[in-house]
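Hi there,

I know you've been waiting on this one. I reran it after we fixed the sequence typo, so this is the corrected version. Both the input and the resulting structure follow.
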Amino acid sequence: MVEMTVTEFSRNLSTVFDRIEYKHEEIILVRHNHRIARVIPGSFTLTALEAMGDLYRTLPEDAGKDWLKDSTLPGNLDNGMRDLWDV
């Protein structure tokens, strides 16, 4: 784990990201002598849940209701849920 100021981080962004990616270092960002963030290496693969986990934050509140309504229209998922990989 390495601590650095936000200024140092921003001036050396490419180098810092190389350290995170290739050396798997964890970086603690400090501003005005306070730790404000931690940058950690990410995993190389994501599960579907991880990949879609924050999707709800980007959609309007009524999106789920609209999708449900659209899925019941004729020709849309007539047979209910199905396995997309079952050809």
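Quick highlight: The chain has a mean pLDDT of 82.

Best,
R. S.
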